[in-house]
Description:
The protein is an alpha/beta fold. It has 21 helices and 21 strands. It folds into 3 domains: 6-13 and 21-253, Phosphoenolpyruvate-binding domains (TIM Barrel, Alpha-Beta Barrel), CATH 3.20.20; 263-293, no CATH class; 296-540, Spore Coat Polysaccharide Biosynthesis Protein SpsA, Chain A (Alpha-Beta Complex), CATH 3.90.550. A hairpin with a 2-residue loop joins strand 10 (338-339) and strand 11.
Amino acid sequence: MTLFDANSAKTASPAAKTAQRSRFRALRDLLETADLSFLLEAHNGLSAKVVEEAGFQGIWASGLTLSAAMALRDSNEASWTQVLETLEHMTDATSIPILLDGDTGYGNFNNVRRLVRKLCERNVAGVCIEDKLFPKTNSFVGEAQPMADIDEFCGRIKAGKDSQLDDDFVLVARVEALICGHGMKEALRRAEAYLRAGADAILIHSKQSTATEILRFAEQWGGRAPLVIVPTKYYSTPTAYFRQAKISTIIWANHMLRAAITAMRDTARLIRDTQSLVDVEHRIASVGDIFRLVDNLELEEAERRYIPRKAASHAIVLAASRGDLGAITLDRPKCMVDIRGQSLLQRLVSTFAASGVKDITVVCGYQKDAVNIGGITMVENDRYEETGELYSLHCAAEAICGPTVVAYGDVLFRKYILDNLLDSSADVVLAVDSLLKERTAVQARDLVVCDRPFSADYLDEQPTYLRRMGSDLDANSVHGEWMGLASFSTQGAEWLRAEMTAMQAEGLLEEADLPTLFNRLATKHPVCIKYYTGHWLDVDTLTDLAAARNFS
Ligand code: SPV
Ligand code: MG
């Protein structure tokens, strides 16, 4: 056991030393230094953090306020494991030592043993136990509270010290003789016995409104061990008196909770009276302050370290053509046709947004002024009448950079299909419907032949690749229809740009369609196919439009 040396001097500021020392050592140093030290009360993780931020070198985990914060009485109504749980929040939130007000030790010597072990395991630097009986009563409640038998209490102290898992763990013995009306002599007798039993410090408590009896005790104690006081009732005594009396440590025992109660009451009243937040906003901590206190920044950094991030995809929607829907597309392009209260394009944009694709470029042409959707970037293909799909795509060439999704402007598909493409690790992946609808052979735009047909086998995870896409394929060899939705990785987008450049050089840019582009890509790079069974539609005809209006 380290002996108290009232003349020992500090060699470095406690705050600087705390970084290298264990919290056990830090609390011991705080008690044993010749300087007067201070512990401020905290009752949960947040208040502990506030105490540390204010510059305190240690925390008093008060039995009164730990209970009160749970709206419980200071009569051991909170179980000791509930106290332990709260302490864990407090140690997690701080780096300074915590002295637990362990009441009477929650029982006899055996309970103290287990308590001390658990406190050491949880990095709680010390415990203070008082010489009363379980269940305890707060020192300021009533008169002549029964005290513990001295020898029995010494047994509690010994058991605690024998159970500590760190040599520097601090056990403070609290003498309640003055509180319980037994006088100075009894207080000194008990303090002496507790010191001999192994206590590291003595807490002498008083409920008088002046410090007279405390100062008298200190004088007679004569620095035999660090002396701790709790001037809740004699708060008006200047701190200099305690310094002069060579008190080791002052505990400001309940002031965080009391301050919180006053602030909460004032705020609650003001909000109730004004039915507004205007008058309170500038008086209270900001939400940003809460984020800072709980260190949201650290979580953001950790997310960057641990969550694999794909670059966010953006989308290019080809919506320049009029389409063939008769009078319905007189004043608007096909993508703006209404599908149950929302245009096709709006629905498409919503599906993209729901899957996290928020940067959307729409290539417009026919009746472009009718495309009045917010949150999109519009580029124009003014030559929409004489050019094909590839030319429209080329109009958005600047947007083909990084992960890119390309979609026709007249398709609708379920969100999971898009999510599935976005999750794919393939560089180029096309969504293909494997259900050959009756109309397919005659009307389908973009039939595909792949290296293998759709398989419904649960265990079949083999990739499928595009062999050929077109509207003129032999119906018997076709494996499905491209849904007008393709996803490109950063690499895939580079291949796409390179292929468009090559086609431009060959004079194909203006008339080529997307199947031509994909067929060329497939001869040079793997173009992956994801099979689906329905859950999409395109709007080429009035019949399609009717179907679209029933699509959910
Ligand atoms: C506490 O803070 O719970 C104490 C100090 O034990 S006192 O309330 O003064 O007893
Ligand atoms: Mg207490």
